[in-house]
């Protein structure tokens, strides 16, 4: 009798980290599998460790190799960490994409903002709908989150049903969109869930995430009490929060001015898809200066301290249309993503120095997470009764805590994996059965580089220790034709004794050349290598760092 097909799972991003989500499911045997991809997101570069890198994306080399067996890509929702890599990576895959209406419309608007975007067709599936994608039947189950139309995916196969939760929380009053569909999730639990692949972001936090409706009440109170101008910054994709801010402005008889392209784009898509029906029209930044101080509210991008976003420019007093003064208020209706603390802190300090009152979630309930806390995780387990739970979407601590909670809740099998692990889900005993290539791609300007790329590695070294450039002109007889040229970038001007580094390096270059036998002086490569070593050694001796050194040898 033929063995039944195996169902396998492999995270290629988003496990052991928050961001850059990409999961794949395979059905078949070791020699031939049909694959289904879920989400294709980005992480954001860190200037300290990755200077010049804008975005980080998952390595999709495995899917490129399996392209003919890749049945499709399904989107759980339209946050950048779940769909931000599609424009760059889809041309390598060319597979069908499936999403619900809001995600598809936001993706289309994102493509329209690019210079030369590839034409990427998206098949729109209704919320709560089902679609056959190769041997997978995928069901879109509505869940509450901080963007409209977030969905858990029930992936039905002949080997069993997997629930891939995506990002979710339990919010009975989400303001916009449908609450998490408890009834359908309980039904799935009765039908049988082979595996729950679950969001771990808030697994370290007790209790439940508060509701969007509670935040809306607080924002109304704060805007009503404000005397001068008010600016509110939040994640541009949080349409429920945008509506809450608009409602607060209406109660306080203020006009809403939208500031920032990302916010503009989401507002336009939300209006087109009906999520801002009945909400007053917003004004453009040009009218801001003409409105009375107590009759205006600026809704701004830049809650994460992005240097080119609206709020950073306002805080630096270099925005062409929007200014704030003593007595005005700024509400940060967001949480600071780990890694952005310095940038956000700098904006807050600049605002405070201008006499602006800054309100954050430390003072008032002006933000709630879109992810489940521990009691909500227990509810999901109780409703769906999975045979196996795999924590994803979190760093090591989050995954560990989610796994511990699942074991305590009585889940029969709990498995913690890493990006690249190939996990057999069923039939039979689950476990890690192999590995697939997993890594990172870096978006460097308009170019995609892999993690080992020379540009990325060298730029990191240059950011730490500068760079030395040496140009040498030699005669065919192996003599110096002129003085060497030395240019030091990012290296201190003088050592501790006050001696100029330019002089120290120049002397090291000359003495190295003069100390070489004539045949090595006539060999440009050998000469360059000797000089390179000598320059790095002398700088290290006086500074304690070894910068990259580029030596150019010209024979005249």
TrEMBL record:
It comes from Bradyrhizobium centrolobii. InterPro entries: Metallo-B-lactamas (IPR001279), RibonucZ/Hydroxyglut_hydro (IPR036866), RMMBL (IPR011108), RNase_J (IPR004613), RNase_J_2 (IPR042173), RNase_J_b_CASP (IPR055132), RNase_J_C (IPR041636). Coiled coil: none annotated. Transmembrane segments: none annotated. Keywords: Cytoplasm, Exonuclease, Hydrolase, Metal-binding, Nuclease, RNA-binding, Zinc. Residues 21-219 form the Metallo-beta-lactamase domain. This is MBL fold metallo-hydrolase. The keyword Nuclease applies. CDD domains: RNaseJ_MBL-fold. GO terms for molecular function: exonuclease activity; metal ion binding; RNA binding. The keyword Zinc applies.
